[in-house]
Amino acid sequence: MSLTCTCPTPTSIGNIGALTCPENVGQIQRLVFARAFSITDVATVILEATWTGLFAAIDDTHAVYTPLIDNPVVEPGAVITIGSGNEVRNGIPKIVGNEPTSCTFTLRNFPVAVIRALKELMCEPDLQVIFVQEDSKFVHNLSGTTVTGFAVQGLRISDKKIGGFNALDEHTLEFKLSENWSDYLTITDPTANFDPLVDW
User: Are the beta carbons of 69 and 105 closer than 8 angstroms?
Assistant: First the structure.
């Protein structure tokens, strides 16, 4: 990915808002996948009827959710630079962007039928994900007023790791999120209407 800057440079640097409410996603405990999330606004995403319709849909808006997952790790990608030493002024590398963010999750004791269904998602060229975190809040993208998911790339479901005598069997689910994926991340609480960790 490359760093895209406004050109020409604005007449002044932009303002930075005050830190009125700290933001923290917390632990991701469920994943919701679809080819296309396009929910009109946050007032709609909190309604159980909205999700009932998406789970029953027979077009690109059809959504599916995973059973509860463990060990979520969302690791931002490293910086991408060019040049060193005499190649660049003062020997300072030029920053051109960031590598993708790596997301990995552990699926413990998942039946093989569920794993087979998840593996079918590996063939989807255009897939989005919405996270459900520990307090049953949705973590999604907000484009204007429209709720969408984050674009998934390189989805992979591992084969079974057998735990043996002292551990549980498990699979790994992993994918990448492109640079700047979280720039419009929004956390929305549906729990006055329903609880997606309990009700699904």
Answer: yes
